[in-house]
Amino acid sequence: MFDRLSSLVIALTLIGIAAIFAALAGGDPLGIAMMLTAGVLAAATVYSALPPAAVEGSAAAQAPAEAPPVSFLRHPDFARWVDQEKDPLLGVADNIVAIANDAAIRLLGRHIVGADIRTAIRHPVAAEWLSRNDADAALETINLLDFPRPGQRWTMRVAALSNRERIVFLADRSALDAADRMRSDFVANASHELRTPLAAILGYVETLQDMNGEADAPTRHRFLSIIEREARRMQQLVIDLLSISRVEADRFRRPTTEVDLTAIVRHTIAQLQDSEAERPRDIVAVLDDAPLLMLGDAAQLGQLAHNIISNAMKYGRPRTPVTVELLREGARVRLSVSDEGDGIAPDHIPRLTERFYRVDEARSRSVGGTGLGLAIVKHIGERHQGQLDIASELGKGTRVSVTFPLVTGAQGENS
Ligand code: ADP
Where in the sequence is the domain holding 229, given as residue range(s)? Predict the structure, then answer.
């Protein structure tokens, strides 16, 4: 009700008035003096016992005591946590950016600290959500399409710390989207590749059925050959699709078995020469007898060699050599396959290992290509710490080579 100072003044005044009345009433001066002293002492005791806040006498002190708002953003632990976060993170008080970690500064610029969050994150959807202050806004993950650049996607989450303070989390989803796109493109491409031979098979079967056995022998033979060729194309495609998924599944499993690359390449060449391939005699093998030991999966390395050598046979000119060499290069071995063919234009070379990428689709199909051969080579190469190199000259030919690390200790064996 009264502060400490006013209480003291009132007490002293009352004591003074009591003393005057006592004197006027003819009281004993010694008794009055003793009462006066006791009153002053009592007032001083009460004064010192009252809480000091009462002394300030300010308006704030007279209002019911209210604790100052707690700031989470200013807590030193918060700043430490923000700095450790790898994704962009911003602390916002009353929509003003109070704190931003390095990732946020890199993404949005240094000027954002002190700026309004709705101008710091320049995206209409973000601005709309950040203007809201309801509970829903704190729970949802908001998609920011074409942010910060066209074709990219980030997500934003907002967590409320108090009425005034919020944390804004940003995360880049562009790479995930690219992986999703690749996966769905792959499924679409694979379906398309399977549908084409399937349509041909069904078409020729229906024609034969419509002819009700009236087709002459050469026509029947021609149709059946086409059906067989298309069925084999489908078969090869299914084999390659299974291979690529198996190789991808093994991607992070480093091979631990010691294998001899010379023996693997020799075996692959023999298989190709025995097969019905058109030009088995064109293969020229430049191989040493000595083993070249590396850590590997023999079946996968055989498939890698098969794909590269059969490409050289498919795309090289008939009756020109396909040279297969194994060369030791320090601690590594190079498997190199050269052909004399039309070669590949430089702008195609970086894309050859993409699934279903072909320089000339019709040509690839006509030689039984699936467009997956070099994608498989790339994956097998990566699993074996291989380095793929494709060098080509238009009109002259192509050299595809892969180097692999040799097993330590095997280096000097055939030098
Ligand atoms: P494909 O099954 O079509 O041969 P690959 O993945 O093995 O698929 O090769 C991709 C494309 O690279 C081929 O379609 C072809 O255009 C080109 N290519 C591969 N090897 C050679 C080569 N030795 N000479 C010329 N072009 C080649």
Answer: 177-247
